[in-house]
Amino acid sequence: MHIGVTPHHRRRTTLITAAAVVALAAPLTAAAPAIADANFPSPNGNTNISSIVTYDDLIAELEKLEKTSRFGVDVFTLEEAGTAVTDSEQGRDLYVATVGDGPEHVWLQGRIHGNEPYGTESLLAVLKDLGSNGSPESTLLRETYTFHVIPMYNPDGSELNIRHTILQDGSEQRIDLNRDWGVGKFAADESLAFYEYWTMVDPAFAVDIHHQGLKTEYGTGDEVTLSLGISLAPGGPTLPGIQGGAYDVLTRQMHVHVYDELQRAGFVNMDRYQVGGSLEIDIKGGVVSAMMLGLNHDGLNPEGHSNPAIFFETSGNTSDGSLGQKARGKSIQQNVRALNELLVGMATGEVQQEDPARWEEIPHAPVTGYQTDDGVIPASY
Prior knowledge:
This protein is an alpha/beta fold. The chain contains ten helices and 15 strands.
């Protein structure tokens, strides 16, 4: 992961222009909403979900990018990739797009929760830029990495505007796909399909884009627009024991870098992702947790491949009416900026030179414990 690369001088530009991001933020069939002087996040919500990218919109946009991109965006389904399970629970094709021809593979996913829509649009914006931008930074990314982009991990939940997928085995059971990679799990077809594809890819690292509810910063009460998360808590019960602590270091460096770079964007206010007011998460059933743990399900990962992974949480989601159309462009823009700063920082080696101890400088409540799959472990464990 380019640990030894000499970092470039600190950059003063972002990879994708604000205008390009706002253009992608628009509904695919309508004009972009104005975002000047927007409340962000909007506490009034009343999201018009008719403007959010649908499954059909996604397919149309991916096909357009494949046809028009200068640098070889390749769009395919998991059936075409050759996984044993190929479709969602309700029978929808599961789509991936790749771009770049670098030796290391990067996994970017969004909308694993169907009511968290802007991961889709953020990843489409990143994919569009990687496929068409001839800048030195974009060229570096394509030469360093091959990107595997999953803009809509959960198409069924996205179409229903719910968090889950629904099993079609007669039980109508709702499955949280982000808790379905684990021993004794894999209830949903989406989980089986994307897990097998992950074992084919063996990525160097991964990023997962989410939404959260409206949130205020500990100690100040300021509105938080973006929370920076690691699903196995740094310094917690699990992560320090993986890969000799390498992921415990690198995941913190990744977020320290994003925090530093995005502070220049005046509309972004970041903190660390916590639950229950003061708990760090240490869940093993999450997709990105299973990646770090090197999960070997059904003998598909016998070599025990693992990779570091982080996630972003944009404030607001459609189910609780807290998304707010006025904040749409900025919500997507902050995800895109965060992703691009991270990706370029990894490629240049800047991320690997960050001080991981500065994770503690990112605003957060004093940690009282760790939320695990089996309950809370006190911080004094």
